[in-house]
Write a structure and sequence with these properties.
Layout lengths: L16 H16 L29 H6 L14 E6 L17 E2 L15 H10 L16 E6 L12 H14 L4 E4 L7 H12 L3 E5 L21 E6 L17 E4 L3 E4 L6 E4 L4 H18 L5 H10 L19 H6 L24 H33 L14
Parallel strand pairs: 1-3, 1-4, 2-3, 4-5, 5-6, 6-7
Antiparallel strand pairs: 8-9
Helix pairs in contact: 3-6, 4-5, 6-7
Membrane topology: Single-pass membrane protein
Family: Belongs to the peptidase S8 family.
Organism: Micromonospora robiginosa
């Protein structure tokens, strides 16, 4: 998939410009009648935006089986971490995302729906990969199921991400996310180099916010060129890997690639209804979301480390390629468990973010164990008392419980 909001290989027809205007106009009328914009509405009250999906998966998607994020969940599931998704918007009504999507913002749009209208379906899939919650009735969760999503809508269906005004919009969205307490920013898109965009990236890094971005996808009839913001220093640039562990052919190869995530045959929630969409061609957009989910787990487990240390932890614990690092997949496939729990450092340097103590397992027999311990203690005390009294009792029985006499010495 192309890392824009009009990806190559997208199946089905996207909404026409006329439909976009009608959907947004209807949302504006609703807002004027006291609905969407007057106060934060519950997730179920969000406008019906974007395509519907098909049936929910009946088996765990390969990407979840491969990354096994549940191995890291005993340490934490991303609670307290906010991930900004700068994309096409995020639907808050899907069962996988209910209660996870905060009010966000729209940039350069006709009306403001707080980032919660996704006409394309791209941003909602990305959000589901990052923070889809547990207990939705399907074998599907996000990598960090207790993280929150801050949706920032920067591109509509009919706008190319290489348009000259787009980098500035992305930069404004980055600054907005930082100023609204984002801990991680997911950028499943690529655009042109731009001073305002670079300034926004530096602003985020200076405020200790982790940025994860798509390295980019190869385009037909267009030579490979660096994808921004992924190519900026300090941004974690993500490539794609397939089910066999190989580099996805459409994923850009470049020296700025840091790490990789699942990038082919991807499944995720649809923005309208409760269905799921399949993206067989995948793309680095979705690979980026898997890495952002792992970054959220790291931020939750190690809240005091810097963005550079988060990036170091992600890359140095990845499943490396045979040569350790290359331009196709960077340091290799992200490994959520190792990223959270690994003790990094050398004999002379202290570990980078010591592993937190795991949450204790609940013991359903705890009260019975406590009672048993007290019974044993009381029994031991009683046994000691009885052992002390036994000689006294024996002598008493022999004398018939008569008082004993003390022998008085005779006078000489």
């Amino acid at each position: 998939m192309r890392d824009s909001l009009r990806p190559n290989g997208t199946t089905g027809r996207l909404p026409t410009a006329h439909r976009i205007r009608s959907v947004l106009s209807g949302a504006a009328v609703t807002a004027l009648l006291g609905g969407v914009l007057t106060a934060p509405a519950p997730a179920q009250a969000a406008p019906a935006c974007g395509p519907t999906g098909g049936p929910a998966p009946t088996e765990m998607p390969w990407a979840l089986s491969r990354l096994d994020p549940a191995a890291a969940w005993r340490v934490g599931k991303g609670a307290g971490v906010t991930v900004a998704v700068i994309d096409s918007g995020v639907s808050p009504s899907h069962p996988l995302l209910r209660g996870r999507v905060l009010p966000g913002e729209d940039f350069n749009q006709l009306v403001h729906l707080k980032g919660q209208c996704d006409l394309v379906g791209h941003g909602t899939m990305v959000a589901g990969i990052i923070a889809g919650r547990e207990g939705s009735g399907t074998p599907y969760t996000g990598i960090a199921p207790e993280a929150r999503i801050l949706p920032l809508r920067v591109l509509a269906e009919n706008k190319e991400n290489f348009d000259p005004d787009v980098p500035g919009e992305i930069g404004r969205a980055i600054r907005w996310a930082v100023d609204h307490d984002a801990d991680v920013i997911n950028l499943s898109l690529v655009t042109l180099d731009d001073p305002a965009l670079k300034s926004a990236v530096d602003y985020a890094l200076g405020k200790d916010v982790v940025l994860v971005a798509s390295a980019g996808n190869r385009q037909e009839n267009r030579e490979d060129r660096p994808g921004y913001p992924a190519a900026y220093p300090g941004v974690v640039a993500v490539a794609g890997i397939d089910e066999q562990g190989g580099h996805v052919g459409s994923s850009v190869s470049a020296d700025y690639v840091d790490i990789a995530g699942p990038g082919l045959n991807i499944v995720g929630p649809a923005p309208q209804g409760s269905g799921y969409r399949a993206e067989p061609q995948g793309g680095t957009s979705f690979a980026t979301a898997y890495v952002s989910g792992a970054a959220a787990l790291v931020r939750a487990a190690h809240p005091d480390i810097s963005p550079q240390e988060v990036a170091y932890r992600l890359t140095r614990t990845a499943d490396n390629p045979p040569d350790g690092h290359n331009a196709q997949v960077g340091y290799g496939m992200v490994n959520p468990y190792r990223a959270v729990t690994g003790l990094l450092g050398t004999r002379t340097d202290p570990p980078l973010g010591a592993m937190p103590a795991p949450a204790p397992h609940a013991d359903p027999l705890a009260w019975q164990r406590t009672v048993a311990i007290w019974v044993a203690v009381v029994g031991a005390v009683l046994a000691g008392v009885l052992l002390t009294l036994r000689p006294i009792l024996v002598r008493g029985r022999r004398r018939g419980w008569r008082p004993g006499r003390r022998d008085v010495p005779q006078d000489a």
